[in-house]
Amino acid sequence: MRLAASSSVLAAGLAGCAAESQPPIDLEAERLWAHEHCALANPAPYPPTGTYMSNHVGRENSNAIPCAGPRAFDLEWHVLETHASAQPNTFSPDGKTTYLTTTPGDDGCNAFAVDTATGEVVWKRCDLPFGTLASTIDVDEDGDLFLTAGNTARALDPATGADRWVTELPNTSASGATYGLKFTIDGHLVTQVSDGTVYLVRRTDGKLLAELSVADETGFVPAEPTALSTDMTPAYVLARLRLLVGDKHYDEAIAGLGGLLGASGGFADNTVCTTARRQVLTVGGGPDKFTGAAVALDIVGTADAPGLKFRWAAPLPAGSASSVVASSDGERAVLGDGDGHIHMIDVPACDANTDADPEPDRCAPAWVFQHPGGRLLGTVALDGDGTVYAFTAGPERVEEIYALRDRGDTYDLKWSSDFGPIAQMTTVLTVTDDAIYGVLSQVDPLVTAGVLTLPKSVSNEAVVIDKETGVILHRESTPDSSLTELVLSPRGELFLTALGLYEILTLDPAGRDPVGGLRKYAARE
Question: Counting Cβ atoms within 10 Å, is residue 174 exposed (0-12), middle (13-18) or buried (19+)?
């Protein structure tokens, strides 16, 4: 069902407004300027000169940007306090505007456009469902915006944030979230809702082009949800959560927190991946409630009349927070499982059923890295030379970051880094030509309170790490742990959204409240 956006709803739901009309942009000058700093040749419909237009960098979720970012930086501004983000921000093709989704915060609004030079809000949306928090605002080569909001896919006007179209995505699940969308190689949108149905949506008008229920096709079921007993959680912890989400969305936030700490009970577990091989790779439910799976679907038919067809599944321990990541040619795919181990998949071998599993609808990994302890809390990075960068967290961890060079049917450990007994990365890693960016947190020894394992104290730094050695090159104090990414913009600047999960959970009645917001770091001259 397609929902029309009425003028009365837009008038009530949109707060803030577009800036006054600006002179035409000299696109060629902007391209040349961006190329001097950080330009990425993303295939259309991703902007050719942009970097973080979408969650995890482009359709493959690679987290790798083939350019050089700053080796040191300073905080330039911090805006939107009380608004926490679960996904990274994105940018207009010229890098002058950044977009983000957040918790409702102190004004009840949860989607924003912000001027990257000044930090001023260009527009904001205050009418979108709480589940918008799970989506990035994706940007195409024309600067048009797309996101998922609850059980809808939407196109937004970049100047005002108003809906251009809204399409309902039928969803039978009462649990989980829709984790944003991607552009396919044909230029359509693809997403997976929490009951496991994958939808192809036409970008121009929101028409549903194809759908496939992974659960119906495979018989797979979602992971056992992680239930949080708020009766056993300290009142001051719950008060910090209310500060960011408000009373209206408190119950939804509690359910979402369970998903972050384990499994949500929804079938879909993270952002989909699309590839040059005309495939869609998803992660989520599996053969039973303790076993998840990565699933490959083929996009069949023509670009004008596409369809979806199940190809194979790779079972793995459930509860992964890792999206599937693919190489630029779509021939390698990698992700972390619920035990924190890393699986590398030879996609052509699984497509042709020449992998180690004799069943044509099952895929065996080319290799598995079983690190000695800790959990993988987010998506890995895969750069152009086949190196996988992964971080681990939790009290059992041995190293904070592992760099693994893909060798086909095995891997080489390029390096691993230990940053101290209470240090752990709390963001996904952003990898450039010569550096890695993220947030490193010092989390004091963890203690148990009911069903939760909570920190006693936490402090955080935005860091630059040498890509070849794993040594920290620069540190900059930052208020909150993040769980998203320290993002490099098309103009060579760094931006950080924060969730503040560790600050919410700190077992100290006098502990600092999470701040939230968006921070900009400028290169140090």
Answer: exposed
pLDDT in the model for residue 491: 79
Strand order in the sheet with 2-3: 2-3, 163-168, 152-156, 145-149, 138-139
Write the CA distances from 429 to 179, 182, 381, 486, integer angstroms. 19, 20, 6, 8
The pair of three-digit structure tokens given for residue 387, joined into one six-digit string: 């190196």
Residue at 299: amino acid letter? I
Kindly report, residue by residue over 68-127, the tens digit of the pLDDT: 788 899 999 999 999 999 899 999 888 899 999 999 988 999 999 999 999 999 999 999
Q: Indicate the pTM of the whole model.
A: 0.89
How far apart (Å, rounded) are the C-alpha atoms in residues 455 and 443?
A: 6
Measured CA to CA, the distance from residue 491 to residue 175 in angstroms comes to 39
Between 468 and 247, the higher pLDDT residue: 468
Place of tokens 């999206």: 323
Cβ-contact 206, 189 below 8 angstroms? no
Provide the pLDDT for residue 257: 66
CA distances 450 to 124, 140, 388, Å, are 39, 46, 36
Phi/psi zone of residue 58: left (φ > 0), alpha (ψ -120 to 50 degrees), beta? left
Q: At residue 459, what are phi and psi to the nearest 5 degrees?
A: -140, 155
